Structures are given as C-alpha cells and as structure tokens.
Structure prediction request, 353 residues.
Amino acid sequence: MSPSLAEEIPGTIAPREAHRFNEASLESYLRANVEGFAGPLRVLQFAGGQSNPTFVLDTPKRRYVLRKKPPGTLLPSAHAVDREYRVITALGKTSVPVARTFALCEDPSVIGTPFYVMEYVEGRVLRDPTLPEMTPAMRRAVYDTMNDVLTRLHRIDPATVGLQDFGKPGNYFARQIARWTKQYEMSRTDDIPALTKLLAWLPAHVPPGEETRLVHGDYRLENMIFHLTEPRILAVLDWELSTLGDPLADLAYNCILYHTAGATTGGLADVDFAATGIPCEADYLADYGRRTGRAKIGAWNFYLAFSLFRLAAIAQGILGRALQGNASSETARQVGAQARVLADAAWRLAQEG
Prediction:
C-alpha cells in the first residue's frame, strides 16, 4: 500500500483486517461489469462511518467508491446496500445531488458480502456543524443549501422516480418505533431507563396526519460532500436508512444538533447564532416551511424525541457490533456509549412536549 495514496485521499487508511477482501476477485468483477474499468486496482478504506464499510477504489484512469455489508452476524434488515443502490440510482434523475452508480453485486462469493460501486466525488466533508473556519456568510449559505436539498427530496413524488414501493405507506412512526425497539433489544448491552420510558411514551403520542414521502433517514452535514470552494452540495451520501416515511421525521433528525452539544451528531446547543451566522432552529424551520409550503409544524418535540430515540437505538447497535469485533470504525465503542446520553435527551424533550 503506497503511503502517498492514503495521504492524497483525505480520511482514508489501509483496509482494516476485519474488512479485507479478495481484491483480485473484485478487480475481475469490475472489469466484467463496469464499463470503462481498467486496472490495476488499489484499495483504501474510509476511516469514518459506523455502518457499511466504505472503500476507495483507485485506478490509473479514475476512482470509484465501494460500499459493502460488514462481515459477521448482522441485525435483520440492517446494512441494506441493495436499497441504497436503488434509491441513489433513482435520484440520479432528479435535482437531489447524489453520486453516479455503476454496479450492484448481491453475490457474496465475489468479496464475501454484497456491495455496490459508485463514483468518487471529490469535495469537502464538513464534520463540525459549527463550521469554525468559515465566515458568518458562508455558514449561513451552507445551512441554507442543506435546507434546500432536504426540501428538494421531500417534494419528490416517489412514484415519479419508480420508488412507490420503497416502503409501506402510512403508519411510519408505529413501524419505526417497533423496528428500532426490536433492534435495541437485540443489541442491548445494558439497561437504559430513559429508553425504557420512551418505548411506552412514543407509541402513545404519535401525531395524527402522517405524510408519505422519500426520507433519507440520516440527513446531516457529515453525510454530504460539498464543493471545494462553494457552499454547494455535490452529493448526499449514506442512504442506508432511506425509505418512504414522514418528512417531519427527516427534518427533526436534521435538527437534533440544535438540542445536543456533542453526542454522535455534533451539536449547536451552545452556539451564538447571531454572531456565527448559523440560523437558529426557528429560522431553519421557517426556511423549510417556506420551501415546502408548510405553514406550521405541530408536536415538534415528538419528532425530536423520536429522532433521538432512533439514534440511541442505532448507537446501541454500533456498540453491539464493536463488542463482536466487526464494527466499521475504530470509534465505534465511543459512539455506541452515547446511547444513554441520546436517550436521556429524548426523554427530556418528551417531558417538555
């Protein structure tokens, strides 16, 4: 492995031992299934990410990105790379910025697990939501762009892009609460009292009038690639949790950072909005409402509490994979340990609401 290649591609490392695969088998598959592919192939792994291991495939002519299921025993319905591939491919025909897809391989004999290949998009990943290196005007523009792209996604009629069967219409929150309750129970390593309380509170407080749209499921700054110099999103990443659901769940998840000072999402709880140029939550919601024609959002604390509950269940699953030794990131134990913090925050919002 050439050290200069890892230095050239930010955030990459040599593939972790647990995630290595037969690179010659992959190269043979790509030569047969990706038009224009030509080796030799060199593989690097992105150091970040907590779910599906992600790799850079470097060749003399171009670079690709590979996303695969992790090895080992997995929770049911998790790590659905086939669904990711399908939604990204469909959205490639819309105004939502996504990477171009090249191939989906569901045959585990090639590299050990199913995977898909998409283009490598060069740009910036903004991991700190306070955007410390930017001017107030640039911060405002970044958040405005993030808001705009989310509304573009939520304005799409799923049937127009062939995704009318991408999930079940209606009862989104009931199904999601049941799903993440099951995932939490299957990966539980300790008792979290706030989560136990939420398991009873959330189903009893689902607001009426659910809508059905495409939802990303993990919509946050770190899952976007921005242009190198402009506040413009080139690709929204990590569509593993996307489905048909209520857009307000997506919006609330995107706004969790207003109610946290760290955790797994980063946080804006202590930010001086006037000084930094970052919009406060009320302004961010108003911009979303203006773009979608939504005059008012009721039961906001339910949506926030639900989003934090779901994130706590995800964190617990990450911790479970870390204890099994097949987590995608070296920080998995640290992230997983945040389940209790997130559940406590969700319960506080539920009580306030």
In short: Residues 7 and 13 are 9 Å apart (CA to CA).
